[in-house]
Amino acid sequence: MRGAANPKAPGDSFIDAGSYALQGAVGHLLRRSQQRAVDLFVEEVGEDGPTPRQFAVLLTVHQKPGVSQTDLVRMTGIDRSTLTEILRRLGRRGLIRRERQPQDRRTNALHLTSDGRRTMESAIDAVERAQRRILEPIPAAERPVAMRVLERLAGLDG
Predict the structure, then answer these.
(1) What is the pLDDT of residues 97-124, one digit of tens each?
(2) Distances 105 to 11, 60, 99, 101, 108 between C-alpha atoms, Å
(3) Which of 52, 33, 48 is closest to 134 using CA atoms?
(4) Distance (Å, rounded) from C-alpha 158 to C-alpha 156?
(5) pLDDT tens digit string along 37-89?
(6) 67-101 residues labelled b (16+ CB within 10 A) or e (exposed)
(7) Are 135 and 37 in contact (CB under 8 A)?
(8) % helix / strand / coil in the chain, to the nearest 5?
(9) The CATH classification of domain 29-42+49-134, taken from the options 2.60.40.10, 3.40.309.10, 1.10.10.10, 3.20.20.330
């Protein structure tokens, strides 16, 4: 029942779907930007190199040896179930090893293997090239502002 307090019935929309501009939808643009970033990453790193998420895990574990999976979720922004699968794949490839923590046998401390360190180090220059290519469409003077906006959208602004 529609009335003054509830002028819109469930399922009704005030937005005309026929004229809705997908190209102006923030979520759509972010998804397209993310896909472009992944494509450039793969072009630079190669099909046999780590994926962007795998690289994030390898780099973070390299920088924080012994990090727990719980902390790795927080530090990388990768959800727990996805991270578990990434760690399983990296473990099968011999790039990462898990050590049970003596103080809490339920917690794994994560470490790179020597192959994991080599994989991460061999990819880092290509990753940096990809990062530069991602920002190429933005004039150099505007890139610091663009990065601050992205940090805010990602919830990393403090």
Answers:
(1) 998 877 766 778 999 999 999 999 999 9
(2) 51, 22, 9, 5, 8
(3) 33
(4) 6
(5) 999 999 999 999 999 999 999 999 999 999 999 999 999 999 999 999 999 99
(6) bbeeebbeebebeeeebeebbeebeeeebbeeeee
(7) no
(8) 60, 10, 30
(9) 1.10.10.10
